[in-house]
Amino acid sequence: MVTVQDRFHEALALHKSGRGDEAEPVYRELLRNDPSHAGAWHLLGLVLHKRGDLPGALEHIQKALALCGQKAVYWNNLGVVHKDLGRFRAARAAFERAIALRDTYADAWSNLGLMQVESGHLEEAERSLRYALRLEPRHADALRHMAVVCREKGDFEEALRFCRDAAAVAPEGGKVFEIEGGVLAALTQVRQ
Predict the structure, then answer these.
(1) Tens-place pLDDT, residues 97-106
(2) How many angstroms separate the CA atoms of 134 and 131, rounded?
């Protein structure tokens, strides 16, 4: 007999392999049968987020948190959705909550650092991002965000080093090449 956990793990395997659209009907089935399944609410929220349905993602992740408010990953992903909705204060609060629940969560530190960069708090951002990198030295997002901090501070050589490190970790990430291009352009202007 197939259990709820079996079905959940089946959906999770699909999701992890990049087949969230195939996992979605399984999550929905699980929620019809067990509306208190926080994991299914959360992961369905991630599927909707990837699809670009930010209000739907927000609703589903909030339902997961109402059922299980002690999961740092839920708070971190709530912060990502808030950020994408342009709700920066709510995003920052969600990332801080994730960190309060699990202070060794590099993703949350990196996301908090990005929020600090975007709000112009470079010193705070640098502290958050360096901590994320102490926790996970090959964290591609934290490396990219540190490149931006260094670029904004005028330390172009250090920014290029962070770009190269990020590209080595995640060579498919186009964002890092965009940042590197901006750094090189700024460096060229300084040298002229």
Answers:
(1) 999 999 999 9
(2) 5
